[in-house]
Design brief:
- This protein has a two-stranded antiparallel sheet with strand order 1-2.
- The relative contact order is 0.07.
- It is mostly helical.
- The longest helix is centred in the middle third of the chain and has 17 residues.
- It is elongated and about 60 Å long.
- The chain has a domain of 79 residues.
- 74% of the residues lie in helices and 2% in strands.
């Protein structure tokens, strides 16, 4: 059974998920076979993820680089900017894990330019959250670039989802940069969302102050 995904493309979701799962089951014992399976997946989202999974099971450095590039190219086949950026987190993680720090930074810059074309600020937020969640050891400079894009999108976004994304990003950053996590939590416009975000990062006393402000 096929349906239209968010990009307006026709694809078989079961085939995409099953192909990716088959790669996961196969790659440990037969990386070449898993690579062939990954390449056969029609939908670019699942093909990108599957190709990225194969990389760490290869021995040849040049082949690894080529497959990472192939996965990033698969990501580009998605029509919508936030989907391109979101799924690129998988090959970018592998790129960083294999020492490609300079190329990683270049790719983040490229993807953030692409993300600017996404008209929905909440979807821009979502993509930034996925990058930080999937790549927790992101180097400082590209991380700050992602956070700038995230904060700009949060400034444009309205409604509960922006508050949710601010809390999620604050939690992701808390162990690494508590001060930044607090800053993001305080960006929540809704007082209840602000309190929840502050409590989530251990700032219970500060959260209580906003409770008092909401209940004079």
């Amino acid at each position: 059974m096929t349906r239209r995904d968010n990009d307006g493309e026709r694809w078989d979701p079961v085939a995409g998920v099953n192909g990716r799962s088959l790669v996961s089951r196969t790659v440990g014992t037969d990386p070449c076979g898993a690579l062939a399976i990954a390449r056969s997946i029609e939908h670019p989202w699942y093909r990108c993820q599957a190709l990225a999974e194969v990389v760490d099971h290869l021995d040849d450095g040049r082949q690894k680089s080529a497959i990472i590039k192939e996965a990033l190219n698969a990501a580009m086949e998605n029509a919508e900017p936030n989907r391109i950026v979101s799924v690129s987190a998988w090959p970018l993680k592998v790129l960083l894990d294999n020492g490609g720090v300079r190329e990683f930074s270049r790719q983040i810059e490229r993807l953030l330019r692409i993300l600017l074309a996404e008209p929905n600020p909440v979807r821009r937020q979502d993509a930034a959250v996925i990058l930080v969640r999937h790549i927790p050891d992101m180097p400082e400079e590209p991380l700050r670039a992602v956070l700038r894009a995230f904060e700009a999108a949060c400034g444009e976004g309205l409604g509960w989802k922006t508050g949710y994304n601010l809390r999620w990003m604050a939690e992701l950053l808390n162990a690494r940069d508590h001060e930044k996590a607090v800053e993001l939590a305080l960006m929540c416009k809704n007082l209840r969302s602000k309190r929840r975000a502050l409590r989530a990062i251990g700032e219970k006393e500060l959260a209580e102050k906003y409770y008092e402000a909401d209940h004079p």
